[in-house]
Amino acid sequence: MRSYLMQLGGHLADALRDIRPIAVNIDASELYLPAEQAIPLGLIVNELVTNALKHAFPGDRAGTVEVVLTSHTHLVLLVRDDGIGCPLPKEGVGRRLVQLLAQQLAAKITWEQPAVGCQVRVEVARADTRPSGDRRWR
Q1: How many domains does the chain have?
Q2: Which of 3, 32, 80, 136 is deepest in the core (most CB within 10 A)?
């Protein structure tokens, strides 16, 4: 997931930030997930990072978008920025897409408004369906 998210974040930053000084930082555990989890998580990251790059930093404002993926008893994905903040989420196409992807993962998703910026937390149960002896699935 680390390599996948780093490539995704780099491509999104290059495509959407123009010449504005906005960094996209990825802090992801080195873990392997089945496609049934990796693909929806990647699509959620794509939507949330794209939204932050388009809306969190108006004008020439600088900032940072951070993607954090950790794994313990469950996966926790955080996408946060230090932009202008997020008003109460509206029922738009992007939000609906993120909700449907979270539903597909049986994930809990929360939009949080910290003191600065916006943060979205996605919590997902780890897939326990790995084949015995297959070391690729951790």
Answers
A1: 1
A2: 80
Q: Are 89 and 48 spatial neighbours (Cβ–Cβ below 8 Å)? A: no
Does residue 35 register a pLDDT over 80? yes
Domain interval for residue 102 = 2-125
Phi, psi of 21 (to 5 degrees): -80, 75
Among candidate residues 53, 75, 85, 54, the one with its CA nearest the CA of residue 66 = 53
Tell which residue, 100, 14, 101, has the closest CA to residue 50. 14
pLDDT tens figures, 75-101: 999 999 999 988 665 677 888 899 999
Q: 135 lies in a domain?
A: no
Single-letter code of the amino acid located at 29: S
CATH number at residue 77: 3.30.565.10
Cα separation, 111 vs 131, in Å, equals 35
DSSP codes of every residue in 33-78: --HHHHHHHHHHHHHHHHHHHHHSS-TT--EEEEEEEEESSEEEEE
